[in-house]
Amino acid sequence: MGSMELEKYLDLFVDFLRSVKKASATVIAYRKDINQLIDYLKKAGRSNVAEVTSDDLNNFLALLHTENYTPKSISRKINSIKTFYRFLIQNQYLENNVAAAITHPKFDTKAPRILTRMEYRALRDAARDDVRISAVIELLLQTGMRIGELAALKTTSVGDHFLTIPAFEGHPQRDVPVNKSAKLALDHYLEVRPKVPSDALFITKTGRPLLIRNIRTAIDRYFKTAGIAGAKVNDLRHTFIAHHLAAGASPVLISKLVGHKRISTTEKYLEFIKDLPAEKVKLEEL
């Protein structure tokens, strides 16, 4: 076991990530992190994975700290390393998981940016003449889906009252309700959507799928137009979660709707909603 060169295992790992449909950005990040680790290990005289010890991994992380990597960046690299080693163990390339005992550095979790009602209404107004992006904004705001999930939607994902969100980055397929506001915006977009042979729901004028970076750029532009400072696309998801929890929605229900693997992820928002008005927002409306 573990007799191949380190780079060979990285290639197998990357092939595995692609086979389970990890997003290309995620695959690139994992590859970069493990490549950085391999470069360090080779300089330390380790030529194959079986020679690597837990001390080697901890020394690598200590080096990152001395090179002024932030705790958050180091934590992300630890996630990459742990995932890599789980892959090696599960595929019987290794018997001993030397990454299992690695601990994450402590760092302050930044509070999510939660848009006020005035802010998300201003965003709507700013994008009103852009039918496609208006529909994108409405779906993100009214369902809490991830931007990658939205970019992966197909025309067949659209039902009368539900959207079928395809499996994405290890998250299983799920159905989410589509409220009146989202349905109107989506129907309006479908009326003007280019008539081209593409099954992607959101497309460019030439019929190519609308990419995540295109969506981010467009919504960032409308945030700026609306005068909303410090907001990003993912904050629409945060806003969906926070406002519905503040209105009394069950964390269990919200967790299922947004596709959180653990309810504790949803419950973390509870500490950030104390200042939100406790208004009776219906689950289907924002």
From TrEMBL:
It holds the Pfam family Phage_int_SAM_1. GO terms for molecular function: DNA binding. One of its GO terms (biological process) is DNA integration. Residues 110-282 form the Tyr recombinase domain. Residues 4-89 form the Core-binding (CB) domain. Transmembrane segments: none annotated. Keywords: DNA integration, DNA recombination, DNA-binding. InterPro entries: CB, DNA_brk_join_enz, Integrase-like_cat_sf, Integrase_catalytic, Integrase_recombinase_N, Integrase_SAM-like_N, Tyrosine_recombinase_XerCD. This is Tyrosine recombinase XerC.
